[in-house]
Design a protein that fits this description.
SDR_fam; Fungal_SecMetab_SDRs; seven-stranded parallel β-sheet; alpha/beta
Length: about 260
């Protein structure tokens, strides 16, 4: 089995759920990244305590304030990461931060649509733009051929709920704002894959599965998969992705999903 061998990884929305578990499992790997940049909106708030406890135990886990809805916050985070890397590039950017505002077709509002779209689509776009110089640097300086998450990659955490073909969980909740935002994120990923192809930066949209997180458990229903089990599969899949996968939409097992 291929191994993820990235020197540096950045995860947005890492104070809870999938993001926090990604940081936990990355730091426990035998060939763990030298730098793990864990970002969230409010590192000093009570919602980030678990992340702070984790960082206190492990050298190289750097907590970075980053609000994906605030361009100035994103620019400042990119500057801090650039300083930490001391001339090296960033191998793997995981755009994980996301929100949902439960609503039916009748109850959906322009305000919630706009709020969710700003976080789930515009956020990953602007974050990627800010860290693109570091991703390009990692790609240019890597001896690896082709594309991989160990070389230079953008992984956008999407959802099968945004698949126009599958509409995962429609019978459970409509969540129009979330579904539309993830469909748009998939298109953004496809565009990124074309735009950054010459840089040999792998770009993929990934459905993480229906996991037991604050977002995954809703409407009184417990998600079917534990977050640690799902993230373990995600990391195994990231290790196996190549240029054959760039510009695609995959699940946590690496299988291609329909748009």
């Amino acid at each position: 089995m291929s191994m993820l061998n990235a020197r540096s990884v950045l995860v947005t929305g890492s104070n809870r759920g999938i993001g926090l578990e990604l940081v936990k499992q990355l730091v426990e790997k035998s060939n763990r990244p030298e730098w793990i940049f864990a970002t969230c909106r409010d590192p000093e708030g009570p919602g980030a305590q678990a992340l702070k406890n984790l960082a206190a135990k492990h050298e190289g886990v750097v907590i970075n304030p980053l609000d994906t809805c605030e361009p100035n916050s994103i620019k400042a985070a990119a500057a801090r990461v650039t300083e930490c890397l001391k001339g090296a590039g960033l191998n793997l950017l995981i755009n994980n931060a996301g929100i949902v505002r439960p609503a039916s077709m009748e109850d959906e509002t322009p305000e919630s649509m706009s709020e969710v779209y700003r976080t789930n689509v515009i956020g990953p776009m602007v974050v990627t733009q800010a860290f693109l110089p570091l991703l390009r640097k990692a790609s240019q300086e890597s001896p690896r051929k082709g594309m991989s998450c160990s070389k230079a990659a953008i992984v956008n955490i999407s959802s099968d709920a945004g698949s126009i073909t599958n509409l995962l969980g429609w019978e459970v909740g409509h969540s129009i704002n979330y579904r539309c935002s993830k469909a748009a994120l998939n298109m953004l990923t496809r565009c990124q894959s074309l735009g950054f192809a010459e840089d040999e930066i792998l770009c993929v949209a990934l459905h993480p599965g229906w996991l037991q997180t604050d977002m995954g458990n809703f409407e009184g229903i417990l998600a079917p998969v534990k977050v640690d089990e799902g993230v373990k599969e995600i990391l195994n899949t990231l290790a196996c992705l190549s240029e054959k996968n760039t510009g695609t939409f995959v699940n946590l097992d690496g299988e291609t999903l329909p748009w």
